[in-house]
Design brief:
The chain has 5 helices and no strands. By secondary structure, it is an all-alpha fold. About 75% of the residues lie in helices and about 0% in strands. The chain has one domain (about 5-160). The relative contact order is 0.11. The longest helix has about 35 residues, at about 125-160. The chain starts with a helix and ends with a helix.
Amino acid sequence: MANILDILRKTIEEVQSKNQKDPKVETADPSIFDLLRKEVNKLDNKVKTGQAQKGKRNPKSILDMIKDGIEGVRKDNRKNPKVATAPKSVFEDLLKKVGQKQQRQASTGLKKVVEDYNLDIRGLSRETLVEVQNRYQEDLKKFNHQYATALFNIIKQQRRR
């Protein structure tokens, strides 16, 4: 499986190219994409050196850290009078790509539940299935966070010994 940060790097390139080619959308300043790459590289270094969770009271998923980094660049871009504010689509396209991994996990997990329990969902509307999948995704995220928090606390306790 490809590393999410490598996928994000490629996505930044794709979004930049799409932004430059789209005559309907203002072309974002290249420095915005440089900041996004820098943010991804910074996070990648933290992950590789085991510093991603250092100094945190609660664990954060890599996807949440990526989202925070993208939002941070967006806020910096809005505040910086020297650089034109990038179109919303630049950041939304990146955030959408980050969210796809969670959506795929939820879709796969829900499919497994349907198969394991031999449920016939053919009569359900698309809207209902989307609603159930969204709820499943939220519940899965909370469940994973509970376990991550428990493991995070165990690791902190062991380091104190």
